[in-house]
Amino acid sequence: METNALLGERIRELRKKRNLSQEQLAEMAGISSKYLSRIERGIQAPSIESLDKISAGMKVEIRDLFDFYHIAGQVPPTDEVHHLLKTASEEQLKTIARLIKAFLL
Fold first, then answer.
1. 8 A C-beta contact, residue 58 and residue 25
2. N or C, which end of the chain has less CB nearby within 10 Å?
3. What is the band of 66 on the pLDDT scale with cuts at 50, 70, 90?
4. 54 within 8 A of 46, measured Cβ to Cβ
């Protein structure tokens, strides 16, 4: 699934969790309901300004709109890293710590 479709589906998911119609969210965000419909269907890529308005209308952070790993059937990178760290040996953890320090410093 392409990014526009995933983003649109995530916006729809968040909107429905808040029991908002497209018309209600569009009004809260100051955009047209037709534009919101095209975004939710993945037909139109929203501008950053529109994403900001949509997220504000739903009272979520703009980054929450991009939390669509579950929709794509993927594991978020942070979950994968946590799993790898939990299963790493003590020696592997020491090596990882050295690599992180070298990378960040």
1. yes
2. C
3. very high
4. yes
7-60 confidence digits (pLDDT tens): 999 999 999 999 999 999 999 999 999 999 999 999 999 999 999 999 999 999
Residue 6 CA to residue 12 CA, distance in Å, equals 10
Domain ranges of the chain: 3-72, 75-105
Secondary-structure breakdown of the chain: helix, strand, coil percentages, each rounded to the nearest 5: 75, 0, 25
The number of CA neighbours under 13 Å toward the Cβ of 38 is: 10
pLDDT computed for residue 55 by the predictor: 97
Q: From residue 45, how far is each of 4, 16, 49 by CA, in Å? A: 6, 20, 12
Of the candidates 33, 35, 42, 38, the residue with the CA atom closest to the CA atom of residue 7: 42
- For residues 10 and 55, what is the distance between their CA atoms, to the nearest angstrom? 11
Fold of 3-72: 434 Repressor (Amino-terminal Domain) (1.10.260)
